[in-house]
């Protein structure tokens, strides 16, 4: 087996914590030969964990890409608005790329990256890790096997989890679409991708409704303060208080490990007292929606209702897929898929395996597939290629446009052409 050599741009939660465990477990499959990361502590931590020498460490992606070609492929895990430039530069330098989702927060950049990958004959795979989980693959198999006939309608719910939402989308890196991406893209492009994959047809119409309904200054409780540590009178009863949440044992709360490097108790307390993670959830510069629905119609007649909500107990996805001969109900958190067949009246419940790796095994799955695609020189039409991903990204952009236009129906053919025609 050929050992694939990679370089990593962005050594944060995804570039390091999500994908490097696979590298460390399977050193005969893959070797990391360089990293580019502007944060010194993250850069040092990554280098020590992957046994990199000082000559293999760069503070910027520009420094790394200015070197002679170092390896087979790059793993690019920068922030959303920082994907386009290193990806294009890498493709043109001859690298294959595994790119963290979303591709970009700019639809023109998404179209351009897909076009360049095609022209250069390079594999550009997008980290839609959900497609590689046993849960979603089993569901896709049941549909392909015809057990519910033709799919007619889907109801898909993304339950973000109230504490996850507060951490990532009120206080965290994805709280403001100017700094990152709209919620439908930053969080729910996984769901747009899954829906497009399951329906297996192009989307024709999109409409969307949603808003930032709760986490605003006018909803701040009486007696609350700018920070949880400023003598807030309701801190001890607030479900979003930073103190009990981020000072938990790291084994119980993985989000707590993300607010400081290294996440010692002292560093975490300093982060709460001085950084964004200690801000009152009603007094941040957040602007992304906390609830949103998207209505979609596809060329094959399938209709889909998607709902994202930040006010849920669990972090979970649930789905109901209704076909002409049966129905499937799925619960990702429990790994259960409930199949009911109309003709026989039989009900079968499948339980899919879980994994200790992130996204129910999807993080490991996409690494395994990307390396396999490189070894076998499968550069086009892969499971999560840029070509496949582009369509679901445009669905997300159309949904956001509709939401901003008070639910106006967006014609996807015209919307798609407005970007693709410009680039091509």
Structure description:
The structure is a single chain. The chain has helices spanning 13-18, 20-25, 40-50, 61-65, 84-93, 107-120, 134-144, 162-171, 183-186, 189-199, 242-246, 265-274, 362-375, 386-404, 412-423, and strands spanning 4-9, 30-36, 57-58, 73-76, 96-99, 124-126, 151-159, 203-211, 291-298, 303-309, 316-323, 326-331, 336-341, 346-351, 410-411. The protein has 424 residues and is α/β, with parallel strands linked by helices. 46% of the residues are buried. Helix 10 (189-199) packs across helix 14. The protein is built from 15 helices and 15 strands. A nine-stranded mixed β-sheet has the order 14-13-12-11-7-10-9-8-15. The two termini are 38 Å apart. It is globular. The protein has three domains: 4-129, NAD(P)-binding Rossmann-like Domain (Rossmann fold, 3-Layer(aba) Sandwich), CATH 3.40.50.720; 131-214 and 287-357 and 386-423, Dihydrodipicolinate Reductase, domain 2; 217-278, no CATH class.
List keywords for this structure.
424 residues; alpha/beta; Dihydrodipicolinate Reductase, domain 2; 3 domains; nine-stranded mixed β-sheet; six-stranded parallel β-sheet; 15 helices; globular
